[in-house]
Amino acid sequence: MTKFLTEDLKQIKNHRLTPEKVENDLKKFEEGFGTINISRPATINDGILTLDANQLKHFIDVYNNSTLSRCKFVPASGAATRMFKDLHNLLKAYDHKKSLVENLILQGLEQWHSFFENLSRLPFAKSICNQLNLTEEDLHHDEHKVEFITYALDENGLHLSQTPKALIPFHTYQDKCLTAFEEHLYEAAAYAKHQQTAKLHFTISEEHQSKFDVVLNEIINELEAETNVKFEVDFSYQSNSTDTIAINLDHSLYRDKNGKLLFRPAGHGALLENLNQLTTDLIFIKNIDNVCYNPEQQTQQTNNDYKKALAGLCISFKTKINHFCKALNQHPNQEVIREAKQFLNDSFNLNISTENPEELISILDKPLRVCGMVKNEGDPGGGPFWVQFKNGDEKLQIVEKSQINLDCSKQTKHFEDSTHFNPVDIVCSIKNAEGKTFNLQDFVDDNQGFIANKSVDGHPIKGLELPGLWNGGMAHWHTLFVEVPQQSFNPVKSIADLLKPHHQECVEV
């Protein structure tokens, strides 16, 4: 057992943690986490559904005709530091005696050359040029390119790298710049029009709350008038009770210069607690940086149609689950038992042997997620797989590369043979057959966390990441994968991504 100092115990209590919880986290550093046993990639007609035109229309109609309450859940925590990491490094070591191209080559950043040739196409370019008295022609010269980026990042300029990613301007429509935050509001309005109310929940960092409040207050009246939709927007913070202890590489407790322990946010899996606070019947989940809105484009209408269809599919399967739970509770005859078992096998690949109605209800009555998957075109990240569980079940799961045993050639090949990418949209139901909200922590696979190598002020440390929101955090949910159009996937991991075609196409020149 670890001997905590009196001050440690106070710090643990203030974090809404317990010594037992911290001790358990320390054991995970020693024991590690097991790897996942992939049976094969999920592919079309083997774990991934496709919708033809008739099915698409049917499930859209199911959604449009439903009166179920709904909410869009958007993880939007933190500043946009990673988006500008390479540019920060460039400026930090910039040699003004050399050309921009030479500096890029010296720092191994040749891929940024195209970015600097197209600065004027960034959504905030006009604002910066106005502030610096620059013309578009000026941006052809190295000194002005560097001046432009310096102003974008400097605390006396736009300070974009310390701005929440949600509040970074992503696209320009005529003379209007829209942030990712605003784009999500527009997108939610597009598939909430028939109910005339769009409810959204953003998880943010507490220190950024006032910034979101200012933006929302500035735009809400105009937005509601333009879309004819009433918006209900609320926010939550990642709870510090989900933070985990940090250790040194020799597995001793890390302490700062004042002798205090360090507790770190435990990854996006910690947001499961935020998701667990929602009470709507349907929840749409989408990352803050994956958005491309333009009401004039047919592609946007297609994206909206697929979101509605995913929701309609979720409603249809949840209705069947509720039907079987009710029938097994009230009329548990052999025909109902047979049909319920067949439904579980056909829908979720669960070959159930039990004939006990109560056991069947417990297997049926779980949270349900319908995940929109795009084809993998080379982006880094995980994807959909059939996973072998210890009890022999094969279930659909989302698996990251860090979760598999890369020393096993068979496992590595399964991962490399994957055809599709992590979910770009998720629609889920988190209420049981009686209409009560599940405790989502009951459906987590705690063995799907991982140990992350981090640093504090240049000092290397280890931290624990909780099971990810849509892999280990949802491991024991019912899962359906559905192929959605490639255009649904528009992530912005780097500021240079805003110059890619699928973001530039939406700009009205």
UniProtKB/TrEMBL annotation:
Domain (DUF4301): residue spans on this chain: 7-504
Domain of life: Bacteria
Pfam family, one: DUF4301
Protein name per Swiss-Prot or TrEMBL: DUF4301 domain-containing protein
Species of origin: Psychroflexus salarius
